[in-house]
Specification:
Protein name: Non-specific serine/threonine protein kinase
Number of helices: 7
Strand order of the largest sheet: 1-2
Order of helices and strands: HHHHHHHEE
Radius of gyration: 16 Å
Shape: globular
Distance between the termini: 31 Å
InterPro entries: ARM-type_fold (IPR016024)
Largest sheet: 2 strands, antiparallel
Helix content: 40-55%
């Protein structure tokens, strides 16, 4: 229902700022408010990836969170920011394409989350095949 409501109507800018503030200022010992706020932010990123692109670094901060559910939702929100099909992007939409440098700090944060034990599932490599358990 939220997806339909926000995909048809523009969501309030103040709400996004409030959710970012909720995610960032809540003490790290409690994720009671952080996780629902991050779920809504992930939904906003799905509905309006161009508008939510400016919050990429806020999602990256959440990816570093000690709370696994918040970090998973942050990774989901980041995944929604990537265009699905780059072949359909017009010249006027070229600014929408992401041009991150290979040494951007986002990549080590994702690697730390997925491969260094912070992820709720285990990832193993066997002869180039990724097994997720």
């Amino acid at each position: 229902l939220l997806f339909l409501a926000f995909s048809r109507n523009k969501f309030p800018f103040e709400l996004v700022n409030h959710l970012i503030k909720t995610i960032g200022e809540v003490p790290s010992s409690s994720s009671f408010c952080q996780f629902p706020a991050m779920v809504v932010m992930s939904l906003f990123a799905r509905v309006n990836p161009r508008g939510m692109r400016e919050y990429l670094r806020d999602f990256q901060k959440c990816l570093r969170s000690s709370h696994v559910l918040v970090a998973c939702e942050a990774l989901r929100a980041i995944s929604y920011l990537i265009p699905l099909d780059e072949n359909t992007v017009d010249n006027e939409d070229e600014a929408y394409l992401y041009h991150l440098r290979a040494i951007d700090s986002l990549f080590p944060d994702i690697e730390d989350f997925l491969f260094r034990g912070n992820c709720p599932f285990q990832i193993f490599f066997f002869f180039g095949i990724i097994l997720i358990t």
